[in-house]
Design goal:
Blueprint lengths: L1 H23 L9 H9 L10 E3 L4 H7 L8 E9 L6 E8 L2 H22 L3 H8 L2 E5 L2 E7 L3 H13 L1
Antiparallel strand pairs: 1-2, 2-3, 3-5, 4-5
C-alpha cells in the first residue's frame, strides 16, 4: 500500500512539474512600436527634418535595389529611411519580422548592405569609413541597421533600451 501511495504522489509531482514547465515555455515578448522608436531616432539631429529622409517602404523597387530580398520577408513593421540627397551617411532600417528565422534572413541582408557600402558602394572615402562602423542589431524578431556617423551609437542605445528596459 505504501508503494502505491508513493507512486501516486511521485506521478502527481511529475505531472505538476511537466505542466508547469510547458506553461512557462511560451515566453511573452512585449511588442516594440518601431514608429515611436523611429521618432526618437529622427529627433537626434536637428537637421533631420521631415524632408531629409526618403521612405523606401513606399517604393518596392528602390527597397529591392537597396536591400535585395528584404521585401520578401514577412514583416509586422518595417521602417526604412535614407537621406534624400546627401554625402553624409544616415541610413536606418527598423524591422519586426513575423518569425525569428525571418529576422535572421533580414539581418544577413542588412549586413550585406553595410559590407557593400563599406567596400566601395558608398563612393566617398569618408562615407565608406562610416559604413565600416555601421551596426546591425537583432533581438528576437526585431532587427535594425543603424548607419550614421554622428548619431549611430545613440540610435543603437535607443534600440537596445526597448529590449533591456
Amino acid at each position: 500500500m505504501m508503494k502505491r501511495i508513493f507512486t501516486l504522489l511521485l506521478t502527481a509531482a511529475l505531472l505538476t512539474t511537466l505542466l508547469t514547465g510547458c506553461g512557462a515555455s511560451g515566453k511573452q515578448e512585449t511588442p516594440v512600436d518601431l514608429t515611436a522608436l523611429w521618432t526618437e531616432i529622427s529627433e537626434l539631429d536637428s537637421d533631420w527634418g521631415e524632408s531629409y529622409f526618403a521612405d523606401l517602404t513606399e517604393d518596392p523597387e528602390l527597397l529591392e535595389n537597396f536591400y535585395p530580398g528584404l521585401k520578401d520577408i514577412p514583416a509586422r513593421q518595417l521602417i526604412v529611411r535614407v537621406p534624400m540627397i546627401s554625402a553624409a551617411v544616415a541610413e536606418f532600417v527598423l524591422m519586426e519580422c513575423e518569425t525569428e528565422d525571418g529576422a535572421g534572413q533580414a539581418k544577413d541582408i542588412l549586413e550585406q548592405r553595410a559590407e557593400d557600402q563599406a567596400n566601395g558602394g558608398a563612393w566617398y572615402p569618408a562615407s565608406m569609413e562610416v559604413w565600416k562602423d555601421a551596426q546591425v542589431i537583432s533581438n528576437g524578431r526585431y532587427v535594425a541597421l543603424l548607419a550614421s556617423g554622428s548619431h549611430q551609437s545613440e540610435a543603437a542605445e535607443l534600440f537596445n533600451a526597448k529590449f533591456n528596459g
